[in-house]
Structures are given as C-alpha cells and as structure tokens.
Amino acid sequence: MKNATSPPAIASGIQTSLEALLMLRAEARGFSFLPRQPVTSLLAGRHGSRLRGRGLAFEELRHYQQGDDIRTIDWRATARLRSPHVRVYREERERPVLLVVDQRRTMFFGSRRAMKSVVAAEVAALVAWRTLAAGDRLGGIVFNEFEMVDLAPHRSQTRILRLLHEVVRLNQLLAEEPAEPVAGSVTLNHVLEAAQRRAVHDYLVVLIGDLDGADETTQRLVTGLSAHNDVLLVGIYDPLGASLQVQPGMTAVDRGISCELPVGSAFADSFRKAFEHRLDHWMGIARSLRVPVIPLSAAASPARQLRDLFGTHLQRRTDGA
C-alpha cells in the first residue's frame, strides 16, 4: 500500500541482510522461554501457557537472594530455618526449537520502521541466537508462496547461519516485483503439516507471521502441534493495518492489481472492524488451545518488545533459553 505523494520508503526497512541479523546476536538477551517466567512476563500467571521447557530436577535448597522468583520459596524450609530459602532446579535435558518463518507477499507491508517480513526475520534471528546460548538444537521452516525450506534441528552456529541465510534469501525476493500475478502452491497449512512431521515431541515451535490464509484446517493442525509440543504464535502486525486513514491518491496493490482506495470514514471503519474481527477470532482460538499469542508491532524494535513481553529483567545466567 502506498501514497502517491509520500516520500520513498527507507531502504533498510524494506529488506534485511545477513549482516543485520548477525548483529542482533548482541540483542538476544533479557527474555526467556523457560516455564518459570518473571512476574512481568506475558507467560506468567493464570494466563500462562503450558510451556514445558527442559525437564527440571531438584538440585539444592539455598538462601533467598535479591531477584529470586518468590514462587520458588520453600515456605516449610523458611519456617524451619527461620530465614527465606528457595528451591533450585537444574535443567536435565534439552528442548529442540523449530522456527516457522513466514516470508509470503502478505508480509511485505509496512508503514513505519520496517516491513512485517523484515520484523519476522529479526524475530527469527533473536530466537535463534537465544537458542544457541541455551545450548539447544535449532531447526526451521522458512517459506513463501512458492518455496518451503525445511532444516532439521542441529546444535551449531553453522545451522543458525544456514537458517538465517534462507530467511534473508526469501526476504530479498519480496522486493522483486513479479512480472504477473501467479498463484503459489505453498500454503500455511502445507507448512504446518511439515512442522508436524518435524516436531514429533517436546519441541518449542515458534510460528512467526501474520496467519494470512488461516482456516479451520489451520486450527486443527495447530491443535495437533500443541498436543505434544509447546507452540508460540508470534503475530506480526503493522499499526496501519489496525487503523487505516485513507488519504487522497492512496492506492492498494493486491496480486499485481492496483486500485485507488475510497476516501471517507465508512471504508476506514470497515477496515478496522475486519482487522479486529480477525484478531479476536484467533485470540479466542489461541486461548482455547492455551497457545500464547505474542503480538509484535512492525513499528518498534522486536528485541525491546520481547523483553517487555517476557520480562524486562536480564537473566543472571546467560545460558538460559
């Protein structure tokens, strides 16, 4: 979507690069996907998910230290020893992570800072670097309408670089204007079927995209994935998608067909209601499945948003997932 009178978009927000995703390694801190979340985390409290994380085994009882989660306090030991004590657990096994990264044309939209496709690539890089720090295996499925790249999980920086390379490659294809609209053969449901075959048990599956084309089959597939794995839906949205103010000369392009948008409140209201209806529908499904939905705006730093949503306090241990 574009305005005929607006200045050119900033190139850095249209596409990403491998160098940009490598630099995000330093930003992959201050958030965790472990089942024990900070009290400020989106996953904490009664709205938390079924995140299993690694298996946890009791390791020791020690004095309470400032910053410890109060939920780990052993109240019986505290009363007996007359000072606060916490139970410490160790992580006894790994948890493979599978990233599912959407780079379809519907993701090639942005009004501020970056395209949704770029933000999806940035989130994938942040989760990948966090997974490497945790010592877990990482795999991924990167897809557009015509291609799906499926990489088996592996515990190595080489695998992360391969995954990020594929993300960048499909991301940069979006800037190439197609000669004519062609319907692709890869759908969201095809990708979720591949994810089911890959994530057999005890994975963390992180689906990053805008859920375009989701239907009842999508719901069934997500249900199947979440039965034996942890699933996070990272929904990338653009503020303009939630509230559209049409200006004279503004046009929309869909599958190569361009049309001028009507000016007036009626169209803007219909646009907003359609967005809210879609969001409410999928939030309801996610709640029924107890699958967390992580809303991330394309207009702000994804690293900062992840830290805000999962707890702003930096982890003492840098090897936690």
Q: Keywords, please?
A:
6-stranded mixed beta sheet, 321 residues, disordered C terminus, 11 strands, alpha/beta, 10 helices, 3-stranded antiparallel beta sheet, Rossmann fold
Q: What does this protein look like?
A:
The protein is α/β, with parallel strands linked by helices and 321 residues long. The chain has two domains: 2-38 and 95-310, von Willebrand factor, type A domain (Rossmann fold); 56-91, no CATH class. Helix content is 36%, strand content 20%. The strands form three sheets. Strands 6-5-4-7-8-11 form a six-stranded mixed sheet, with helices on both faces. A three-stranded antiparallel sheet has the order 1-9-10, with no helix packed on it. A two-stranded antiparallel sheet has the order 2-3. Helix 4 runs antiparallel to helix 5 and helix 6 packs parallel to helix 7. The protein starts with a strand and ends in an 11-residue tail after the last helix.
